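Limitations

Structures in this collection are predictions, not experimental determinations, and the ligand pose is part of the prediction. Treat each record accordingly. The example that follows, with iron/sulfur cluster as the small molecule, is included so readers can see exactly what is and is not provided: the inputs are given verbatim, and the output is the predicted complex.
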Amino acid sequence: MVISARELAELERAGYRFVGKHKHGAVKVCHWTRKSLLQRGSCYKEQFYGRELGMQSHRCLQFTPSLPFCDHRCIYCWRNINVTHSNWVGEVDEPADILDGAISAQRKLLSGFGGNPNVNKKKLKEAQEPKHCAISLAGEPTIYPKINELVEECSRRGMTSFLVTNGMHPEVLEHLAEPTQLYISVVASDLETYEAVCQPTVPDGWGRLNRSLELMPSFTCRRVIRLTLVKGLNLKDAPGYAKFIEKAAPDFIEAKSYMWVGYSRKRLTLENMPLHGEVREFSEALARETGYKLVDESKVSRVILLKG
Ligand code: SF4
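Predicted complex:
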């Protein structure tokens, strides 16, 4: 196990459950899955993509095959970025074991809802059979040596999958099995800001990101560029971001406010969290630069959706 017993215990107290024999995979019930079960709203992805893709927050499985591994140390990350390693070490669990483990762990985590009078019983029954894989819980999924097989296993089970990558592994993207929706995170429009925001632990992070963006048009699945915007750091230079949009030609852009939560509160302040209006203003500037259209928004999640 590459993370210490103390870190593992801390993560379990925070609601993570490690799955598989070698414990590099993990699942955590999403805040929005809980809210949806209690009829208190669903996540912006269900709002933005639910009609087309059928994904629903209460049937979402938020997991990762590679919790201890990431080659970025993003300053805005809500996770503990001190527990991750840049390169894979140790044995590798099979995708089916990770998915089986994640589904059964999530069922146990949700079992407490059975006695809650406010829970939607129909949704709780449906939640026992997750239909959507959010491969974005923590760590960088493209470091997992069997990421192709994992994406294939999701679709073999009839599950939709959103794969979020930091773009550090273009050599993996070149042969990647296509998820339902591929996300590449772009959090800077210039090298200096990139290094300040992402603090890459691998050489040539900027070059790798650019190569990954150049590969994005070759995917036939839905392609999304996710901008996580931190006030006073990377919420600037719409023309610079527009160059990346042109290169990657995504179907959608999610311009999202950084959220002052989790471990990021030790690195940033509340003032670094843009207001929804500021994200909208930036998105309008980006729309002018790229020709993309603002098509949806979620004020509670401070995110704007632009469509190409
Ligand atoms: S898609 Fe993301 S935000 Fe929505 S329920 Fe799943 S993990 Fe949560």
